[in-house]
Design goal:
The protein has helices at 4-7, 10-26, 32-46, 51-69, 75-80, 82-107, 111-122, 126-136, 140-167, 172-182, 186-196, 198-212, 215-225, 238-251, 255-279, 283-286, 292-315. The chain is an all-alpha fold.
Length: 316
């Protein structure tokens, strides 16, 4: 239940929420996990008098953020990975989705939530979840749970992967390949690889960009898998716009000057969308969430991380 003091003062509720929205947009102090947590706390303790507006806002903010992130994808860098990079990422993607599906069936996790966890693990964490969620019409609690799982595991990977790389005496190429395949978000891939070596960072970043481009076919596949009998398969507008943004960034030199600004704005909008997703969840909704999705995400991540580590040791 919302706090009684604020429950009877909708104007105060709106003022607090509006202030937080502005703070999230215009300051760098709110990270994605913090924004999601803050939204959850606000939704449960303070309440949300703008439920209808924040639901729509979260949806469109996610899509805008995905388009903006396209200005950080350089297709020349992706092409540098060549056939080998495509094979690595394709095999990893297919295995992760299949293993995640089987784990979800064993644990009894709902189809949309399990799909978001699988996609986030297979491609690029929060960005992939943000792109796929509107396509399958995922519920706010499914989005928030899948994002929370990804954020927790990303934080662990940031510290654990460099230590394990040193323990197994991985070369720069091996560690860069492993980090790009087994860590969810690009930011955590960059963070872990940069702690290992500059060469590992270059390899991990390039291969991670190749992995990120699988967002486009994954959205199309998700739209097909979760289509209803009443609706026809359609391509969400933000996906071709995402591709267009990466094309502009790659082939128009003047766009590369403003691209970092657009990516920064997109990241702030993504953080805002997570706050809006969190604030749409109330205590009654939270009680329906079990620990099974977390176990799915954890087991899937450990499986992918272990097998990809063995792969880079013996194949790279």
């Amino acid at each position: 239940m919302p706090l009684p003091l604020l429950q009877n003062h909708p104007l105060l509720q709106k003022t607090i929420i509006a202030g937080l929205i502005l703070a999230i947009l215009f300051t760098a102090y709110f990270s994605a996990p913090l924004a999601l947590l803050l939204g959850l706390v606000m939704g449960i303790l303070v309440g949300n008098p703008w439920q209808a507006y924040t639901s729509k806002g979260a949806k469109y903010a996610l899509q805008i953020a995905v388009v903006g992130l396209g200005f950080g994808i350089n297709m020349y860098q992706v092409a540098e990975t060549g056939l080998t990079g495509l094979i690595y990422t394709a095999v990893s993607l297919g295995f992760t989705l299949l293993a995640g599906y089987l784990l979800a069936r064993m644990l009894g996790v709902g189809p949309k939530l399990s799909h978001l966890v699988n996609v986030g693990t297979a491609i690029c964490g929060g960005s992939a979840i943000a792109a796929v969620a509107p396509t399958i019409k995922a519920e706010p609690q499914d989005i928030s749970v899948s994002l929370a799982i990804v954020f927790i595991l990303n934080a662990v990977a940031l510290f654990v992967f460099p230590a394990l790389g040193s323990w197994f005496d991985l070369t720069d190429e091996q560690f860069g390949t492993w980090a790009a395949i087994a860590i969810h978000d690009t930011s955590s891939v960059v963070g872990a690889a940069s702690r290992y070596s500059q060469k590992a960072l270059e390899i991990a970043t390039t291969l991670k960009l190749t992995r990120a481009l699988w967002i486009v076919p994954m959205v199309l596949l998700s739209a097909y898998l979760f289509r209803s009998k009443e609706t026809k398969l359609s391509i969400p507008l933000f996906i071709p716009l995402f591709v267009l943004a990466s094309v502009i960034f790659t082939f128009i030199p003047s766009a590369q000057t403003i691209a970092p600004i657009l990516v920064t704005i997109a990241k702030r909008i993504l953080v805002l969308s997570l706050f809006l997703i969190g604030i749409n969840i109330n205590l009654a909704t939270l009680k329906t969430i079990s620990a099974r999705p977390f176990w799915q995400g954890l087991l899937l991540w450990l499986l992918v991380g272990t097998l990809s580590l063995l792969g880079v040791i013996y194949l790279v």
